[in-house]
Amino acid sequence: MYDCIIVGQGIAGTVLAYTFLKNQKTPFVISTDKLPSASQVAGGIFNPLTGKNLVKTWLADELFPFLHTFYRELEQVLGEKFLHSTPIYRPFRSIEEQNEWLAKSALQEFKPYLNTDVNENQYCSDIKNPFGGVETLQAGWVELPKLLNSFHCFLKKKSLYFREIFDYSALQIFSEKVAYKDIEAERIIFCEGTQAIHNPFFQNLPFNFAKGEMIDVWVEDASFESIVNQGVSLIPLQENTYRVASTYSWEGLDWEISEKARTELIGKARNLLKKDFRVIAQNAGVRPATKNRRPIIGLHPQMPRVGIFNGLGSKGVSLAPYLADRFYKHIYENAPLPHEINQPA
Ligand SMILES: Cc1cc2nc3c(=O)[nH]c(=O)nc-3n(C[C@H](O)[C@H](O)[C@H](O)COP(=O)(O)OP(=O)(O)OC[C@H]3O[C@@H](n4cnc5c(N)ncnc54)[C@H](O)[C@@H]3O)c2cc1C
């Protein structure tokens, strides 16, 4: 008998499954590539200071130290490099913003996350930065497709993975276990991202999906190696190739690329880049975001052998490791979950 069936192997299911393994428990993962996955198209950025005014993100002091250790350890286990720790350079929009940020950087709560003593030389030939900029620290990006595919192979080798569209009607829930076809486990946790809207066990979840699109661009003679963010993020993928991420839309929630988003991203990239570029790829996806921007995590109130780990919104990479650990401790040690999260009602 397995300790847990995990349905869905995006970043949520991957991180949760590894959290079980780390704790000497045996997960069994069921997932499919026939349904869309936000993790396969995401930019993969983790950034402790976000938004126009660089606000410290929810639980930043816990999430960021935790995620570095988590992904580094997972790299060792998988023998694959997918974590790119890099500062995020943020050019100032005005002298006022420059002054504001220099003052803010002196505050204790921002000190671990800000570098105001930036070596501007590494950016000034490529990036429009007439007022200079700051760097956010403890930031970077994760190559999600690489991590997900590598973890999929790892699970398959251990016979802990089955590729199929989960058939909800085949799940049996008993007082002491759950059974799905011939697989028995102590519990089941659903990590289906946006596809959770088809899950009959959890209805009326407080989702507020947000579509996002990104383009990859080839930039003539570009040399900057950190992420740059102002309006959009420019993620260095390989020599001269950058990802421009991303748009937000709460309408037309399909997974198709659009001319409108491409035009918006090109415009924003032009505002940042001094050099010519051409678009070489475009991707679209839908974020499993929620109304209050907090994840949905917990056990079913009437069926405690059934759980959900979802609602990671636009921050799956930074939220998943720490919150999977909290969820694990909630299940096995009865530890409380962060009170802000959405628990299934
Ligand atoms: C354009 C864009 C840019 C983004 N950029 C970032 C970023 O820079 N940083 C960041 O942290 N986040 C980013 N995100 C958000 C990120 O993608 C999500 O937070 C994260 O991917 C959610 O992961 P998940 O595992 O919950 O869902 P998903 O990745 O969607 O995974 C769900 C998995 O479950 C499987 N599944 C669903 N139903 C079933 C079923 N019935 N049977 C079997 N399998 C099933 C699906 O096939 C899929 O593999 C971005 C999203 C988009 C769209």
Automatic annotation (TrEMBL):
<keyword id="KW-0489">Methyltransferase</keyword>
<protein>
    <submittedName>
        <fullName>FAD dependent oxidoreductase</fullName>
    </submittedName>
</protein>
<keyword id="KW-0808">Transferase</keyword>
<keyword id="KW-0511">Multifunctional enzyme</keyword>
<keyword id="KW-0819">tRNA processing</keyword>
<dbReference type="InterPro" id="IPR006076">
    <property type="entry name" value="FAD-dep_OxRdtase"/>
</dbReference>
<dbReference type="GO" id="GO:0005737">
    <property type="term" value="C:cytoplasm"/>
</dbReference>
<dbReference type="GO" id="GO:0032259">
    <property type="term" value="P:methylation"/>
</dbReference>
<keyword id="KW-0963">Cytoplasm</keyword>
<dbReference type="Pfam" id="PF01266">
    <property type="entry name" value="DAO"/>
</dbReference>
<dbReference type="InterPro" id="IPR036188">
    <property type="entry name" value="FAD/NAD-bd_sf"/>
</dbReference>
<keyword id="KW-0274">FAD</keyword>
<keyword id="KW-0949">S-adenosyl-L-methionine</keyword>
<keyword id="KW-0285">Flavoprotein</keyword>
<dbReference type="GO" id="GO:0008033">
    <property type="term" value="P:tRNA processing"/>
</dbReference>
<dbReference type="GO" id="GO:0016491">
    <property type="term" value="F:oxidoreductase activity"/>
</dbReference>
<keyword id="KW-0560">Oxidoreductase</keyword>
<feature type="domain" description="FAD dependent oxidoreductase">
    <location>
        <begin position="3"/>
        <end position="325"/>
    </location>
</feature>
<dbReference type="GO" id="GO:0008168">
    <property type="term" value="F:methyltransferase activity"/>
</dbReference>
